Amino acid sequence: EMRMALTRMLSCCLIILFQSTLVVAEHTNDKLTPLTLNAISAARKLGDDVSCLVAGTGCAKVVEEVSKVLGVKKVLVAQHDAYRGLLPEELTPLILASQKQFQFTHICAGASAFGKNLLPRVAAKLDVAPLSDIIEIKSPDTFVRTIYAGNALSTVKCNDPVKVFTVRATSFEAAPVEGGSATKEEVTSSPVGVSEWIEQNLTKSDRPELTSAKVVVSGGRGLKSGDNFKLLYDLADKLNAAVGASRAAVDAGFVPNDLQVGQTGKIVAPELYIAVGISGAIQHLAGMKDSKTIVAINKDPEAPIFQVADYGLVADLFKAIPEMTEALKK
Ligand SMILES: Cc1cc2nc3c(=O)[nH]c(=O)nc-3n(C[C@H](O)[C@H](O)[C@H](O)COP(=O)(O)OP(=O)(O)OC[C@H]3O[C@@H](n4cnc5c(N)ncnc54)[C@H](O)[C@@H]3O)c2cc1C
């Protein structure tokens, strides 16, 4: 029995020793997308052997950026026209080739549109089950994720030889961008050529990006029209905030759907979240309830948003918001 216990202990230690994680970097060729730093922090919880794959075209700046991130040991660099637009069809064979070469036990990325698009394909090709949007790592094979719009936590043990997962950025601190000195190594794969990236048109905005903003001002159906969102934009500009919205506001056509916060929108956890004319349906709360301080402005004192709010103002938003903006001008 003693020998069995010892063997178990030894194999446990060996498992921890031989963890190695690949983080797939999301970037724009010029800049690393911040949530990659959160994914790197998650990877570090699995052990010290963290590599980061930077694939792209002319992405030398990002390679430099990543090599300085604390905790990254090696940067795998892949530059080719085929990686333009970071298409999953082209990145997957590259990740599979890297996995074969370096025997990674874990492969992860942030749970953004990029990660959600890529990693299920990688998992399918490896014939393993992907784990999406994890919020905690209990051990190298046990992860926590939310279910039922964040109303329950599910702890999942993964028996697959390679664990493939996406990381909810708001649940892990960003890794420090200085202090690391990773080695660089080139990796390649042959282009597949089944799809081609043509162009992308991004909405230009001077405001901070919704998922990384420190302050978010969100509007709901209570705003009544798209034009009235100007009230929120004016307030947001005073607070250097991003503007978000409930699904009802998006469905009514007040604002485009990239502003949607919630279960089927973006997940945010800013220092300050101001919910204006939003009732607080569970599907909305799923996207913002981890915010540090929540302020709710609603004319209905019974609105469920007040149950999660740190500060609640029962008032007509058409009066309260201009007053707040005015007060901030002083
Ligand atoms: C599968 C599924 C997924 C979903 N995903 C999401 C999601 O990702 N994000 C999301 O937000 N929703 C989502 N929903 C929808 C969600 O259930 C709600 O319908 C939605 O969040 C309601 O939006 P709202 O709070 O803006 O509108 P309402 O519920 O209509 O609330 C409007 C609020 O404005 C207040 N108000 C009105 N006039 C004023 C005024 N003059 N001054 C102050 N307050 C005022 C009212 O008192 C009310 O509380 C989802 C639903 C389903 C079924």
Task: Write up what this structure looks like.
- The longest helix has 16 residues, at 2-17.
- This protein has two domains: 2-186, Rossmann fold, CATH 3.40.50; 210-329, TPP-binding domain (Rossmann fold, 3-Layer(aba) Sandwich).
- The chain is of the alpha/beta class.
- The protein has helices at 2-17, 35-44, 60-67, 88-102, 113-126, 229-239, 247-251, 282-285, 305-308, 317-329, and strands at 21-24, 50-56, 74-79, 106-110, 131-139, 142-147, 152-157, 163-167, 183-186, 215-219, 242-245, 272-276, 293-298, 311-314.
- The structure holds flavin-adenine dinucleotide.
- The site of flavin-adenine dinucleotide has 27 residues, from helix 7, helix 8 and helix 10.
Instruction: Give the bound compounds.
Output: flavin-adenine dinucleotide
Number of helices: 10
Radius of gyration over alpha carbons? 22 Å
Which structural class do you get from the secondary structure elements? alpha/beta
CATH superfamily of the largest domain: HUPs
How many strands appear in the DSSP assignment? 14
Spatial order of the strands forming the largest sheet: 7-6-5-8-4-1-2-3-9
Task: Kindly estimate the percentage of residues that lie in beta strands according to DSSP.
Answer: 15-25%
The backbone outline, from C-alpha atoms, is globular
| Total count of domains | 2
Largest sheet: 9 strands, mixed
Report low-confidence residues grouped into runs of 5 or more.
none
